[in-house]
Design brief:
By secondary structure, the protein is mostly beta strands. It has no helices and 5 strands. A 5-stranded antiparallel β-sheet has the order 3-2-1-4-5, with no helix packed on it. A hairpin with a 4-residue loop joins β1 (4-14) and β2. It is globular, with a radius of gyration of 11 Å.
């Protein structure tokens, strides 16, 4: 699987489910994200509107053509 790198904005994140979507021009229709891919310790979550750096792969994941494999908050 080839990984690509991008920056984006969190469109939504469901804390209860631990999943969300990151919007970026590199990932049309959004990039699916699971909490386990967010860098950090303790409770890992994202907030709608937050800017992030992320690495993604092409994948059919819950209706999205892309899946994040690493996510880091932008400074």
């Amino acid at each position: 699987m080839d990984e690509s790198y991008s920056t984006g904005t969190v469109s939504y994140f469901d804390d209860a489910e631990g999943v969300g979507v990151i919007e970026s021009s590199d990932t049309p229709a959004g990039c699916w994200c699971h909490y386990s891919m967010i860098e950090g310790v303790g409770r890992r979550t994202l907030v709608a509107g937050e800017r992030v750096f992320f690495t993604f792969v092409r994948a059919d994941q819950d209706g999205h053509a892309f899946r994040a494999v690493r996510v880091r908050r932008a400074p």
